[in-house]
Amino acid sequence: MRRVYLDHSATTAVRPEVLEAMLPFLKEEAFGNPSSIYSYGREARKAVTEAREKVAKLIGAKPEEIYYTSGGTEADNLALMGVAAAYQERGRHIITSAIEHHAVLDTAQYLGRHGFKVTFVPVTPAGLVQVEDVKRAITDETILISIMHVNNEVGTIQPIREIGQLARERGIIFHTDAVQSVGKLPINVEELNVDLLTASSHKIYGPKGSGCLYVRKGIRIKPLFYGGAQERKRRPGTENVPAIVGFGRAAELAGQEMDSEMERLRRLRDKLIDGVLSRVEDVRLNGDRQQRVATNVNFGFSYIEGESLLLSLDMKGICASSGSACTSGSLDPSHVLLAMGIPHEEAHGSVRMTLGRDNTEADIDYVLEVLPEIVERLRAMSPLNKDNEGEAK
C-alpha cells in the first residue's frame, strides 16, 4: 500500500545529513559537557557555538541573541512569562490573538489569572489578524504583543512587519511564534520589527527536543527556572548538544534550499487545493488562499466527522491531521476554526494536510484519487447529511 505523509506541520523526519552531524555527539568521540574546560568540553562548546551561528543566520539575527530551549513550547513560555516578570512594573497588559498556538494561549491565560490583563484580538473569516484591531487594543499598560507569524492549523501568514512597526512606535515588546514559518518563509528579524521570535528544530527536519528563542539585544527577560549559567543564565541546564547540533545543521540546509523547495511545494499545494475543490462537493478551503504558507492545506468537509475521515485516509496509507498535533487528544473542535466563525459542527469536519520535502506529484494524484471516494462513502452513512434524513426516519 502506498504511504503518503501529509502532516509535516506536526513533525518532520530527521534528515540524513542532520543525523550524520549529530552522531559524533552521541558517541564517545564527542560526548563532552560544553561547560567543561578540557578538550571534550571545548569540542562540544565549539559545536554549540557553530550551531548558534547557523540558526541566527536563518532568521537574520546575531548569534548572541539566540537562546536554546527544549522546543517551541518552552520558548513561547519563556517569551511571555519572562517579559511579564521583567516589565510588570511598567504595565500588566498583554495582547495576543484568538488563534495562537496553545503554548501562547495557555500561558497568556495563566498570566491573566495572576494579575495581568490579556486581550485576545479576533481574526477575519480567513484567519487573518487585523492591524487595526491590535492598534485599538493597545493601552498605556501594554508591555507585550504576541502574534504568530504563520498559523499552524490554516497556514495564514499574519502581517507581522506592520504589527511589529506599530509595537515599536509605542515602545511595546513584540514576540512572534515563528515555528511554522522558519525555513518556509524568508525571515529577517530586523525587517520584521521583531523583539522575540520562537523557532523549533523538528519542524525543519531536525531532532525533537531542541528549539530557540531569539531575544533582541537590550530586551530584558527573566528565566523560567534557575540552576546554572548556561545560555547566559536565561536558560540554565546542561545543553542538549546532539539536538542543538542537529538544529543548526537543519537550519543551514533550510536556508540553502528554501526558495526552490517552497516553490515546488507551492505547486503541489495548489494542485491539491484545486483538485479537491473541483472533485468534492460541499467542501471549503479554511484560511486565506493568497496569504498562505506553501506547505499548508486545510479543508472543511460538510456532513462528516473529521476523525472518521482521518481514520479512513489512514487505512489508505495517507497521514493527515485535524489541526494542531498538540491538541490531538481533545474532542473539542479547533479553537482556530471557531475563532474564524466556522460553526461548531462544521469545524469538526475539517482536515489539515501539510506538505514536505518527501512529497511528490504522485502523492497528490493518489490523494485526489482516493479522497472523493472516502468522502462519498462517509457521507452516505452520516447522520449529519441532510440527504440521509429520510432514511434515518
Overall mean pLDDT score?
A: 94
**Could you estimate the helical fraction of the residues in percent?**
25-40%
Task: Quickly give the CATH architecture of the largest domain.
Answer: 3-Layer(aba) Sandwich
The major pleated sheet works out as: 7 strands, mixed
The gyration radius over C-alpha positions equals 22 Å
Fraction in beta strands = 5-15%
Distance between the first and last residues' Cα: 39 Å
| CATH topology term of the largest domain | Aspartate Aminotransferase, domain 2
As laid out across the biggest beta sheet, the strand order is 2-8-7-6-5-3-4
Number of strands: 12
What is the H-and-E element order?
EHHEHEHEHEHEEEHEEHEHHEHH
Low-confidence runs of at least 5 consecutive residues: none
Descriptive notes:
There is one protein chain. Helices cover 39% and strands 13% of the residues. The chain is of the alpha/beta class. The strands form three sheets. It has a seven-stranded mixed sheet with strand order 2-8-7-6-5-3-4, sandwiched between helices. It has helices at residues 16-22, 39-59, 72-87, 102-112, 131-137, 160-170, 241-279, 306-315, 335-339, 344-347, 361-380, 389-392, and strands spanning 4-5, 66-69, 93-97, 117-121, 142-146, 173-177, 196-200, 211-215, 283-285, 296-301, 318-319, 350-354. The protein has two domains: 4-10 and 258-383, Aspartate Aminotransferase, domain 1 (Alpha-Beta Complex), CATH 3.90.1150; 16-254, 3-Layer(aba) Sandwich (Aspartate Aminotransferase, domain 2), CATH 3.40.640.10.
